[in-house]
Amino acid sequence: SAERPERSRNAKAQARHRAKRKAYIEQLEQTVTKLQTAMGVTPEHVAALPPPLAKIRELEQENARLAKENDELRRL
User: Fold this and answer.
1) SS3 36
2) Along the chain (76 residues), what's the average pLDDT of each consecutive run of 10 residues?
3) d(C-alpha 25, C-alpha 19), whole Å
4) How far apart are the first and last CA of the chain?
5) Distances in whole angstroms, Cα of residue 65 to Cα of each of 45, 54, 75
6) Which long-range contacts (CB under 8 A, 24 or more apart) does 22-27 make?
7) Do 36 and 46 touch, CB atoms closer than 8 A?
8) What is the DSSP letter of 40?
């Protein structure tokens, strides 16, 4: 019975944490929506964006191509 109040306190703390996390996520979602509206970006535009990893790979490839081109121009 000595452990019972401790569990109850822990359960209450976990519930508070979950509620805070949920409120924080909702606030972030509202902020994103406001920013998208301010910038005139629709959810369709966002959905049409390439995945970040694909864009990163594309930029890395372009960077490598430009570095090679740079080296060739320096040699000339």
Assistant:
1) helix
2) 67 95 97 92 83 89 97 94
3) 10
4) 84
5) 29, 17, 16
6) none
7) yes
8) T
